[in-house]
Input
Amino acid sequence: MSVPHKLVEVRDLKMHFPIRGGLLQRVVGAVKAVDGVSFDIYQGETLGLVGESGCGKSTCGRALLRLYEVTGGSILIEGKDIAEVNAEELRQMRPTMQMVFQDPQASLNPRMSVANIIAEPLDEHMKLSKSERQARIAELMDQVGLNRDFANRYPHEFSGGQRQRIGIARALALNPKFIVCDEPIAALDVSIQAQVVNLLEDLQDRLGLTYLFISHDLSMVRHIATRVAVMYLGKIVELAPRAALYSTPQHPYTQALLSAVPDPDPAIAANRHRQILTGDVPSPANPPKGCNFNTRCPKVMEICRQKDPEFREVSPGCFAACHLLNDDQNNKPGRVT
Output
């Protein structure tokens, strides 16, 4: 059995945004949107990244493609650290990695026709004749299920689902290997969401794509993801294969998230124990000492308020950052209920 190839390797990624204040606008602090996350994405898989709004999911996705200048850490894509390369090297790497944005209306230029939107990366990175350009545009529109006769129409003439298909066609134009899907269905009607997810899965099978699929919809992530990473306040608290994470979540935050997912079976739903988290999410500009989750955790211990737990492998292929999962803490007194 061959070892899966790591297409993306992220180590201790930090993305801090400066806070400026005073008359001279000096830096007085930082919003720690992403604060030391590490994970791998294997060739051909879909890694789901979930968490509540404001936890740093989208920032993490954008940092992976260096749409932001990262504060610290390394991002290796096919063995090359894109956090360190210069502008010209980064431009040459752009065809390998693309992004599908959350709001299809905001991410498409309203003054450009569909043909010009899809062809923009082709014009930037490839030298094609007019006939080759038109053939590639038609091919991409066919791939995402758009009528090629609509190539000269403008984004406002399409529905939300069709606009997202235009965005996907643009992302596919340069034959990328890795695509960050930043909540690609959040702005769509429920009836259209499944169509777009099915399209992404079909394209992955046909083209061998690798996805980072960012979402707060746990049901959809369960459908599409190979492995799932759970993020809270700038850190990944758990990462596991889909089946393991949904059947036996290890971290208290993951348990609380999954308990909030509705179940279609009334019998199961009636006997389900909901874990309601109290309090508000702390500010990423001033995270709590120790574990980020200690202010809301129903199983908090004294050590949680003092020491940040290590993100480590707790069972084969399953990683978590929680003192409860450390063998030397399981039998110690001091748990606060």
In short: The radius of gyration is 22 Å. The chain has ten helices and twelve strands. The first strand starts at residue 6 and ends at 21. The chain has a mean pLDDT of 89.
